[in-house]
Amino acid sequence: MTTVRKATSLRQLLRALPMWGRSFSYLRTHGLRAYHLAGPIVLAALALAGWWFAEWLTTTLTDFLRGMLPVATQASNAAGEADGASNSWGNTWNEVLLWGSSRLDWIVEWGVLLFVLWLKVKVTKYLLITLMAPFMSALAAAVCAIETGTDTAFNWKGLVRDLWRGVRISLVLLMMELALGITLWATGFLLTLLAGPLGVLLSPVLIALSWAVGAYFFGAAVYDAVYEQAGLDWRSSIRAGWTQRSHLLAIGGILSLLLAIPVIGPYIAALIGPIPCTAAAARLFFTPSPPTKP
Q1: Domain that holds residue 222
Q2: Using CA atoms, how far apart are residues 71 and 114, in angstroms rounded to an integer?
Q3: Is 293 inside a domain boundary?
């Protein structure tokens, strides 16, 4: 098992930041550019899954609402007949129901589209890490072989294991990130409620902390592929990440910035995020003093 060196200083963070940019020439120099294909493959898989989910959700909601509208109309008519004073309200409600029924397909289609878009924004980074886990693990092994001379043979059982590990570590990190994010949000809300001026003054700090939390956990997801090649299980991976938090924050910060690009962020992140970041993380981990040039 490889010894995990500490990386907790600002100097280590600044050392890690340029490694992402250098990874592109490193991958080219060592014949590893084929790993860039993982991005388009995962994007195609996500697009297909998103289309299938949207189609299924649209059909299910449409069928459900079409079944509910006659029931709601009958209930409204019964209420109007039972109470003459409310008959005009019942007619108005019937008109609303009829209008909604005539435009149901459009309403459900756009509602599902917005919901799926929101869902993608929330979970995209962990979906990327989960689906790309086998590619990232294979790349980390390739970089390890180059830097240390230790080669790991490929096998299909390892591919399935990597995918399962990616699912597990992504779920754990997502829960941890959400817990810390909710804590920061609740802290800001309470400060604003109980100490308005202090809450306003500390809001930039809380926003920065929230971003740093997301970047750290993204870095932890990337580094898990590297720690796996070092012989660490997923629990030890989480502990090792805190020991090297400067490197995790730097690598994860780059991915967070790519994802933050309006509209096209997730696509850009998938294409030039996880693979170069994994190469950078592997070089930082397996080489005591990574060279400034590939």
Answers
A1: 10-286
A2: 27
A3: no
